[in-house]
Design brief:
By secondary structure, the chain is an alpha/beta fold. Helix content is 29%, strand content 21%. The chain has helices spanning 79-89, 107-120, 136-141, 164-172, 185-194, 203-207, 210-227, 239-247, 259-263, 269-272, 285-297, 326-330, 350-359, 365-380; strands at residues 8-17, 23-31, 34-39, 48-51, 56-59, 61-66, 91-96, 124-127, 129-130, 148-151, 178-181, 231-233, 253-257, 302-303, 396-406, 425-435, 438-442, 445-446. Strands 1, 2, 3, 4, 5, 15, 16, 17 and 18 form a nine-stranded mixed β-sheet that branches. Helix 1 (79-89) links the parallel strand 6 and strand 7. Helix 8 packs parallel to helix 11 and helix 13 (350-359) crosses helix 14 (365-380). The longest helix has 18 residues, at 210-227. It is globular and about 70 Å long. The protein starts with 7 loop residues before the first strand and ends in a 13-residue tail after the last strand.
Length: 459
Amino acid sequence: MTPSLPTTLLIRNARVLLPDGSFQSADVWVEGGVIREIGPNLARSADTVIDAHQLTLLPGVIDPQVHFREPGLEHKEDLTTASRACARGGVTSFLEMPNTKPLTINQAALNDKLTRAAQKSFVNFGFFIGATSENLPDLQTATPTPGIKIFMGSMHGDLLVDEEDALDRIFATGTRLIAVHAEDQARIAQRRKEFAGITDPAIHSVIQDNQAALNATQLALKLSKKYQRRLHILHLSTAEEAELLRQDKPTWVTAEVTPQHLLLNTGDYEKLGSLIQMNPPIRSTHDNEVLWQALQDGTIDFIATDHAPHTLAEKGQANTAHPADEEASATTVFLEPAKVPSGMPGVETSLPLMLTQAMQGRCTVAQVSYWMSTAVAKAYGIVGKGSIAPGYDADLILVDLDNYHPVLREELQTKCGWSPFEGWNLTGWPVYTIVGGQVVYDRGQFNQQVRGRALMFNS
């Protein structure tokens, strides 16, 4: 018989991030998975007590774009390994994409994922419904889901919806949020022919260029405005798209950016090669700077990882001892980008990456938390998440901002077992991760009993 989990939690002496962006040295009292009281020196006894001296308490990260590969592609990742990686990285909730096998394009496939996650996931979960050119009724009725995912490009098979007539029908029907992968598939196909045979990984950013992204974002924005349809632009990657939205962004449109599009650029292909091949691709240092500006001024609303793991063998780098190891990389046989799967892992490193940027003065800790939790919950209408306040769910992380620790391959929980950020020395690593008032991660150890819950959406 499984022992019952504790129902009360007291966090003492934490530096607590409050909803207004200020910090308070305080205790936090949790009962039944919900924050009940915040204040100094709370006189409470609890099943679990954490002394948070010198630690900062933040709302748990909500990662609104991940690919966790289950069902059908579990050799890359599964819900157990991915959610354990989430817990280590401070991600207490995730929204997962529909390109699994089978595709998540109807209620039955959605139900299957929800059942799997309830049994396996250490953290909270939600799943997008994927658009095809044929499943319009399912897009309106499948529930619970944060929204409809459309691959306008960089996809093949049923999930590719790149014809304007088909897109128009989806935008015209219903009110549910539409999240788009915005790349112009026709332009990509033409440029693949133009640059065929080139195996330099950097050609990926040339083939799927800034114009391909801009074309698709312009089309999505046009259709959103035509029907005043709630639109979210996934992993914005170019300066041109940021400038477009800065000039023309209706109130019902939101956008996100990934840490890799902020922190990596085409110069990194030389060392990392296909490991940083993703869709949309890594861009220039100019794009990096404009994306940072857009995040700071609110043109971009929040951060997602697009966690999309592949094995090193699939990336053509099975013999690479270290992603940036020059000798090992010299023995790697680079494949034409069209033959290499795009994507990289991210849930374990996203929060430390961004908190390190905050400690270096690029932004503030409060901004990072807003971009990675509060703003996500607001945009997707996620009930009970995104703030530390009485009445909110106790999805919390205690991070250490005083010490630095490198990204080490042997410590990674993701099944793919590598990170493009290996060797980066980061601060803000979670010491404790708390999901629904239960400590799921405690200084390197995982509580195997804890399971997350299905997220609920009020939009």
